[in-house]
Design goal:
The protein is an alpha+beta fold and 585 residues long. It is 29% helix and 24% strand.
Amino acid sequence: MQGRTHNCGQLRIEDAGKQVRIVGWYENMRKVSKNLGFLILRDFYGITQVVVETEEMMEIVDGFNYESTIAIEGEVRERSNKAKDLATGDIEVVPTKIELLGKCRYNELPFQINHSKEADENTRLKYRYLDLRNPAVMSKIKLRSAIVNELRKSMNEHDFMEITTPILTCSSPEGARDYLVPARKHPGKFYALPQAPQQFKQLLMASGVDRYFQIAPCFRDEDARADRSPGEFYQLDMEMSFASQEDVFEIIEDVLPPVFAKYGVYNTASKAPFARISYLESLEKYGTDKPDLRIDLTITDATAVMANNGFPPFENADVRAIVVDGFEATRKVIDAMCAEVEVQSGYKGYWFRIDENGEFVGGISKFLKENGDAVKSALGLKNGDFVAVTAGTKAQALKAAGVYRKLIGAACPKHMNKECYEFCWIVDFPMYEIGEESGELEFCHNPFSMPQGGMEALETMEPLDILAYQYDLVCNGIELSSGAVRNHDPEIMVKAFNIVGLGEDDVKAKFPAMYNAFCYGAPPHAGIAPGVDRMIMLISGEESIREIIPFPMNKNAQDIMMGAPSEVNKSQLDDVHIAIVNEEK
């Protein structure tokens, strides 16, 4: 029999005297003598101590390598030296039979299982199946399962219907690179893995579905970051018919905070309604459209009083300041912070203080003394204040100030309440922007968003002045999701695309199903898709998103455990009408 009567986290003092069979991984042995040793058996649920008390049993165990799977049959008894920090710490099992189920054929492991998080990341990823045996690592995967179940339960309670949408679809301009799949039966044509179920969920609204959701896999050929896994990710995708922005906010504000409060490392989460901040206001006050509201510092426009004061970087520049009271950092810490501002933003950070006598000291203070009273008045400075300063174009100064604000918050507990989850909505995004790479007019966010003011706005306003019913959900400085009220009117859709240089024929060609479906009468609808991986990363308190994904890729989008991406043979390429062409050097 390979079954078990109990798992390794189950036995308690009341089980003393029972005959049991437990199975699991042979974690280690503390050998006292040839006929006495303490074996630790581990499974998915916990660990149990097994006391080997005969020479015969010891010889059997001596033939096993650590991490072999074994079965133990024996009697439960009370431990004399109880382990109070262990769920099974009141008991031990004395074996009458030890059986090898799965032999570990290696004397040396790539890392100690219980210390796998200390190993090199590529080693961990290569042996991820061993890494996951570490209870501390597996706990994050268990947490992931619990959170996904909680989200699914809550969405069902809010009358959303779970529907899965296709994985093989057509290429669509979603803002990132597609993963393409060659079509064997259609030479020269390709499927694309969905960057998001965007079109399908809107088509479901046109099909008569009132409320849809799914835990949706999404695929984007993007570079990795600490909060973004390359290749694939999951999102809580949802859409509502006959719905407004407010309807979406109401659902999210009811679904997410209880999950964060129940499972989070912090047990406090924002309650409804979340703070709502316009995109432009967020940039002005926080230097970013992803503000961390746990930090109580804001950015002040100091251009009028600090530009053109003899300090070359401030000449004809936009100048921004952050006033901080109670920041007693050393010069070394401040210099390191200024250097980090430049690393993260590309622009320099500056500083000065007002000492206990009201004098300007440190940093750029010598350039401000002549105009000192005006600077104090404009910024509301008092003795002891530290002032962080950035300069450049408006966009540069704000970007650098946003980084500065986060660094100061992290270094100054007085100004950052780390022990909570602070949500906010960023609203009123521009409909259009000038692309950084193209230099041409592009959609700012989702091209399927409804412009505020509808057709009239598109016909009468300057494109860069048009706002959209688009919104981002931000928590603790991390963007969890983008969403929008959708453009369900084909005439408004065509006009919106006309502004970026695409005609009606282009819209019909790129989005034939959606365009045609909307021509048959579509309901107003809105939706959002919070990132499941990012949520779990925040809830668990992990710094890297790879810690909460069962089988993550590395930073170069490689699965080094499976060897993906891999080469394929010529016949496989021939089947899909592809030839590999090596570029001449």
